[in-house]
Amino acid sequence: MEEIVRLRKHGASIAVIEMADRAGRNTFTPALVGGLGVALQRIDADADVKVVVIHGFDAIFCAGGTLEELLTLAEHKTTFDAHEFYRALLDCKWPVVAAMQGHALGGGLVFGLYADLVVLSQESIYAANFMKYGFTPGMGATLVLPMKLGAGLAAEMMFSAKGFHGGALRERGVGFPITPRAETIPAALKLAEELAEKPAGALRMLKQALNRPLIAALPEAVAQEKAMHEASFAEPDIAARIASRFGR
Predict the structure, then answer these.
(1) Is 55 an annotated catalytic residue?
(2) Catalytic residue among 10, 103, 165, 229
(3) Is residue 128 part of a domain?
(4) Which of 45, 59, 65, 210 has the most C-beta neighbours closer than 10 Å?
(5) Does residue 191 lie within any of the structural domains?
């Protein structure tokens, strides 16, 4: 059976997580979410780790919620913050570099942007496509996207639900390195190597300091997003809209 989440070491102090759910196309399947949880637990227990790099496979970084998950949300059977998985990279005690070498859609984009450093691919598509399905963004998107991408671009991405190639994001002034896809993971590993040269304690303190505004503001943003979900998922035929547009 193919391993869904692979964990390896790059040198002594860099942990590398590969999301490789080919059957699920790196959507938030139980196997992917569970595998990521196990990998992060192993990293937390490794006394040598100081930096984490996470990436996807081929042309996919992370495609967000599964159809089943979105329909479960629409039926009010769960909420996106039920297990706080969405903020796993933020809660990791070590700096995380997200090598977003492939497409990142919806919750998959938000998930990656919780990393401390991000490298994008110029060929890949990045989309906050929640509104395509008729419901408002979740997972802290209304806070994280403006903080990481800028208010104007984040608003356009969320309202329009359209995808942007990495090259287009470069033209819009996104402050992340944007490389050809083949160079995205190597560029992220180089960043991680630079971080790994620093003392572990200083890395942890700086991560905490830089993320303090996000951590402080996140509960209010999540509460507001959950309230909007209650309303938007109550719209007529929302489940049919999700089912008809999923994967398109």
Answers:
(1) no
(2) 229
(3) yes
(4) 65
(5) no
